[in-house]
Amino acid sequence: MTATSTTAIGTLAARLRTVLGTDRVISDRQELRTYECDGLAQYRVVPALVVFPHTAAECAAVVKACAAAGVPFVARGSGTGLSGGALPHADGVLIVTAQMRRILELAPADERAVVEPGVINLQVTRAATPAGYYYAPDPSSQQICSIGGNVAENSGGAHCLKYGFTTNHVTGVEIVTPDGDLVRLGGRAPDAPGYDLLGAFVGSEGTLGIATEVTVRLVRLPETVRTLLAAFDTTDAAGAATSAIIGAGVVPAAIEMMDALAIEAAEAAVHCDYPAGAGAVLIVELDGPAADVEAQFVAVERLCRDNGAFEIRIAADDAERALFWKGRKSAFAAVGRISPDYIVQDGVIPRTALPDVLRRIGEIAAEHGVRIANVFHAGDGNLHPLVLFDDAADGQAARAEAASGAILDLCIEYGGSITGEHGVGVDKAKHMPRMFTADDLDTMQLVRCAFDPRGLSNPGKVFPTPRLCGEVPGRHKGAHPLQEAGVAEVF
Amino acid sequence: MTATSTTAIGTLAARLRTVLGTDRVISDRQELRTYECDGLAQYRVVPALVVFPHTAAECAAVVKACAAAGVPFVARGSGTGLSGGALPHADGVLIVTAQMRRILELAPADERAVVEPGVINLQVTRAATPAGYYYAPDPSSQQICSIGGNVAENSGGAHCLKYGFTTNHVTGVEIVTPDGDLVRLGGRAPDAPGYDLLGAFVGSEGTLGIATEVTVRLVRLPETVRTLLAAFDTTDAAGAATSAIIGAGVVPAAIEMMDALAIEAAEAAVHCDYPAGAGAVLIVELDGPAADVEAQFVAVERLCRDNGAFEIRIAADDAERALFWKGRKSAFAAVGRISPDYIVQDGVIPRTALPDVLRRIGEIAAEHGVRIANVFHAGDGNLHPLVLFDDAADGQAARAEAASGAILDLCIEYGGSITGEHGVGVDKAKHMPRMFTADDLDTMQLVRCAFDPRGLSNPGKVFPTPRLCGEVPGRHKGAHPLQEAGVAEVF
């Protein structure tokens, strides 16, 4: 940081302390280091300031002060994101919304709750459960991640196969624009007139502003949940079973797959006692009315057997169900037991391409001399390959990075996407041009520049190269034709 | 039209004839009159030219020529819209996409179809049915309305309660931007990185460009469909039954309500033989796996009786089911049998407010001295009040218009919306400030101006007052902070 910018930050800090009080503005270097990264620890940047607004008005005042000072700002919820979306800016303010954690309204009869952005995902479900409802999107981090972060990243989860992503469960937000204005997008109704700016905002990763209030859908708790674990010789067989289940018209709440290496890691970490010798396991969960679930569960069991399952276990109670999930949910961390370092990749392919793509991932592993474990949401083709490497071994990190990138190319080749639920953040910005043409990216920049022409709101995220908004190949400029004296004059 | 603009249009027509051939450019005044309105016939404007592109490239060339000439353009599919979204511009080009009607790809195993914008809604279902799939959004006009028009208006339908609107069933589009560039938004995957511009485009009513290719979700045909018709003394009782059904965790494919006046009209027109003396009827349809539907159907029947249904009929076969729906689907047109003129209103309220709002609509009718029939999607609170009047009677039209507007105010008062599925178009642009603050509307204008700074793409629709894009209260202008020498210089 330059001396002049230090002065500028000092001036801004003083202004923010008058807004928030001294104890909610951090400028001490040691304290600031706590916030140097989010869930993607490979990127670390110490912010210039960290602030903790308690209300929408305070959040707007902070952004207004940043805008007036020309200082960039980054919003952070619980800091669990996996793409570095909440990575701080070295010369900027980190706005932590974690203390905005009130549930403002519960209206189960209207299937709605209104919450502040710092409310923890699982707290919404806990608050709604007594009335018989829950909040459906369930990232693995749901015990700690915030609704505001979920909105920024359009978070998914195992049960998004049946229930959809965050964007399908948010009907309205109040946001602070990059200028510091409070604006409402959407509302309580399922759909609003005018542009669906709510949809554009959800998943915009903090680049269009900061959510200060979120209206979410509540979903009725299912009458029954049934879960089975099926073991197969190969991922091909497990992939074929997945396609057969969906093709039969069954939409399970979740279909999760783990391959042999992922099973090995989970066993080493949590002793989940999955069937010995499995080349792949599927966890299939059905929920809904009991009569429906029972009939479909029989069909799912048969389809697994028809496609080569050599062992099927059916959870007898919640405890056994929890055991099935324990292996799956611990898998990412468990990989640390069998490899010193690893990259968590996140991509999407059409479900029918699963067998092909898993074979090709095996080839990529062989070509690059790395091991790749696969743990993923099979039902919606959302892959999470874990690329294992040893950072201490010469060249391995580079080969792992190359293999990880090759997997994204593979996803694109099969008509999929470079991220299913972790977001672009700082991590995948460079991959955006693999998926989008320059025209596609320029079209997105039109919106970014409309909301945030100086790029103060979470700069350096999502888009591959920061550029002056004036550089975006423009739409024609000129007067509105209705304002012209006549059409001919425009010629 | 001025003499100079006539010359300009002549020059443009000549250019378009070189692109499309002479027979696909209409400039004859009599022929042009065919296109003077869409489904909302109270607004009529004869366009300067009508053109029929056959491909995306031709459509792009037409828009590019319009942009170069500064001439506004309006897209039109089948012309069935009910908010005047496809009303032509007197000095502009009407681009009819009805001849772009190829189904480009059917991929039922991936639950996707790729179609041109002129493809008729029901044709997608017809093409997918042999494979066991269908296209879920079902506007009443589905036998004639186009997918492109559905995308523009984010069309709904009776079964959107369970299945969602058009925006929930489109995963990708190719569009012509207002500059004439071809750009892709979204794709085949359920979600794409970057801004959800696809979501913003769907429902943008032609103001952000023209869809030239649409990738839609296909949904598995349900195993079973069961339909009942329940008669109640009052709309209060029918509303309470609706809330009880949803509150029990049942999500029917459709819950439709008609009040006494709507029943009277339907009887007069199609002799649907609904139960005599009913103050309201509900049509409740369940679909899905047989075991599920049977169990839930029993629950629905019981909940209707518990809430005062004095007669319940269960459709024994498809013929009887069709009879139940005949009264409902003919209701709008049927109102013509009991009133010389009528306004079809479209608004949304929270479902739990139904009894209150229907009572207030009754009061509005009394206050304004008009009759109001109610036919609507009760399950999602999407009202369609029909305000009856006689244009020949002094002052009745004005009173009907006032009553119709008062109903929209009522929807907003209860936290709902001024349109559920018909769109804003030219008809409701003036009502937008009742629902949105000036800041909200300015935020939408940021996007409009980013895509279409000269307002050439469907001008005069959606937004209440055309304004120069330079007049939109701006976000701060300036250089990107990353490009600055240091933060301090910005102070």
Topology:
The structure is a homodimer of 491-residue chains.
Chain A: H1 3-20, E1 25-26, H2 29-33, E2 49-51, H3 56-69, E3 73-76, E4 93-96, E5 103-107, E6 112-115, H4 121-128, E7 133-134, H5 147-153, H6 160-163, E8 170-176, E9 182-186, H7 197-201, E10 210-217, E11 219-220, E12 224-232, H8 235-247, E13 254-259, H9 260-270, E14 280-288, H10 290-306, E15 311-314, H11 318-329, H12 331-334, E16 341-344, E17 347-348, H13 354-368, E18 371-377, E19 382-383, E20 385-389, H14 396-413, H15 432-435, H16 438-451
Domain FAD-binding PCMH-type (chains A, B): 43-221
Keywords (chains A, B): FAD, Flavoprotein, Oxidoreductase
InterPro entries (chains A, B): FAD-bd_oxidored_4_C, FAD-bd_PCMH, FAD-bd_PCMH-like_sf, FAD-bd_PCMH_sub2, FAD-linked_Oxase-like_C, FAD-linked_OxidoTrans_Type4, Oxid_FAD_bind_N, Vanillyl_alc_oxidase_C-sub2
